[in-house]
Every structure is written in C-alpha cells, then in structure tokens.
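Retry 2 of 3 after timeout on previous attempt. Resubmitting structure tokens to design endpoint.
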C-alpha cells in the first residue's frame, strides 16, 4: 500500500489540479478532482502567492477545493488510495 504524507499532498495540491481517490468515512470510494491553487478558489486569501487556509488544520485531514463541486471538501490522509496529477 502506498503511503502519502499530508505535507506531500498539500505541496502537490498547491501547484496542481490533483485527482485523489480515497475511501470515505462511510466506506464508499470517492474520486475527487481538487486543488489548493488560489486561481481556482473564489475569494481566496493569499500570502506570497500561497493560499492562506483559515480552516482548522488537522494532521489527519487535508482540506481542498473540489473543482467539480465548487466547494471545500476534506479527506483523511490514511484513506488515500491513489493520486494523479492533471486537469
């Protein structure tokens, strides 16, 4: 099983649109196209070109902007099955 780190995922998300496949808390599998690039996030606050996330940070979760749902979503790092970069 591939292990992903929270910091590694956040770094990918800050520079790319990422397709993340993960297991939801209820056991369903979900594929989400998401990012942390400010250009995709309405009313995004930035500092030195980086997105300022004002949500509470958890070492277990990653909060992302869901491109298709046009809103904030999150997933647990330990539940990530795969990650691919592309738009």
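Retry 2 succeeded. Sequence:
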């Amino acid at each position: 099983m591939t292990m992903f780190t929270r910091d590694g995922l956040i770094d990918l998300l800050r520079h790319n649109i990422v397709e993340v496949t993960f297991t939801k808390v209820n056991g369903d599998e979900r594929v989400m196209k998401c990012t942390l690039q400010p250009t995709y996030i309405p009313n995004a606050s930035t500092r030195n070109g980086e997105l300022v996330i004002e949500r509470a940070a958890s070492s277990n979760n990653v909060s992302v902007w869901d491109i298709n749902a046009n809103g904030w979503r999150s997933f647990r790092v330990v539940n990530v099955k795969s990650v691919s970069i592309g738009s």
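Attempt log closed. The mean pLDDT is 86.
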